Structure formats: C-alpha cells, structure tokens
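During the no-cost extension, the postdoctoral fellow (Dr. R.K.) reprocessed legacy sequence entries with the updated structure-token encoder. One reprocessed record is reproduced below for audit purposes.
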Amino acid sequence: MRKHVSSWLRKILYAIFFILVIAVLIVLITWKPKSQATAYTTATVTQRSIERTLDDTGVITKRTIDDADQQVVQFFVDEDDVDSLSTDQEVDLSIDAIDAEEQGTIYTIADDPTISGDVTEYEVIVDVDEIPEHVRNGMHADVHIVLDSTADDVLAVPNASLYTQDEQYYVNRVVEERRVHLKRLGIDKTDQTIESVEVQIGFEGDDYTEITDGLKEGDVIVAE
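Re-encoded structure tokens follow.
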C-alpha cells in the first residue's frame, strides 16, 4: 500500500514540476517589455585611455632636406588642426600603390597658408625614414598621426552617447533593466528605463570623451 501511494505521489510531483516548467516557458515567450520601453544599445562607464588622431592623404614629392633633394610626403592640414601638429612628430604612412607601410617625422609646417575660397590649409612636409623601392613622385600616401594630447586612465563615455541641451552636456543612464536571454530558445527580451544625467566633460578624443563629474564607474548608459 505504501509503495502504491509513494508511486502516485511521485507522479503527482512530476506532473506539478512539468506544469511549472511549461508555465515558466509560456511567461518567457509571451512576456513583452513595457509599451513605452525601447531596447537600447548600452555601454558601461569605465576608465580608459583616450587619444586624438589625425588622418589625411598626401602625395610623394621632392623637397630639399639637409641640403639634399629627396622624396618626402606632402599634405595639407586644415586651419582647425594645424595647432595640434609640431615638428619631429611621428607619422605612420601607407602607400597603397606599392603596398608599403613606412614611418616618418614632420619636417616642416608652413607659416603661410594656402587659401581657396573659404578653405584655409597649411602645407606639412613629412621626412620619410626609409623610402621604399619603386616609389614615384605623385603616388598617394595615407597619413596617420597620434597627436600629443592624450588622457590616460580617465572615466570616459562614447562620443555618440553625449548630447547637448542649453549648452550643457547630458547622457541617458539606464536605471532599470530587465533582461531574459535564453539563446537556445531564441528568447532575448529587455525592459529598460532611463534618466537624463547632466555631466561635465574633460578631454575629447576620437571615439571617447572624458567625464569629470556626473557619472561613476560601472554606470550603464545609452551608447548612441
């Protein structure tokens, strides 16, 4: 008799467990985020190093350097960027026509500009460390320069996360997030609530901007 009761009890428990599993799956599959919510692309506020770079395109030409004619790279920089450059600054060069990667340094920055309409530019000459074979005058060279101004190990957010209002900077911080993610079942649902947070910014890099006040490390923000 006891064995018979025990068998029926196990069957009842198994049935209850099975019903609970089915109920949970139904909830996961049918649950939807709040009607006003949006699944945002988010980023976590962390410390990182930020840099600014300058990318441009120049051409191979000849100039006199140290009393000798030699091939150099000539490019023109906009008036907004010229003060970020200095002589002896290191330059990475890519010459696609001959599939060459070279290095050089800025040799001169013109004092007198070249003006065309509303565009004001300054000639920059790069002394190439080693001229590769088969380089011809007129070939294009891509110029990549890491500018002197950098910020190391600072709290930063993606540039795309910042927006302005009344000349103040803001980001949207995620204050509530509910996520259900079951890869095998194809379930990935998010419910997020955000708040606008005023921030103070510091160094502005190519991809990230330093935050000096308003956020703390680990905060989750809307990335774009």
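The longest strand covers residues 46-65. Residues 2-30 form the longest helix (29 residues). The remaining legacy entries will be reprocessed before the final report is submitted.
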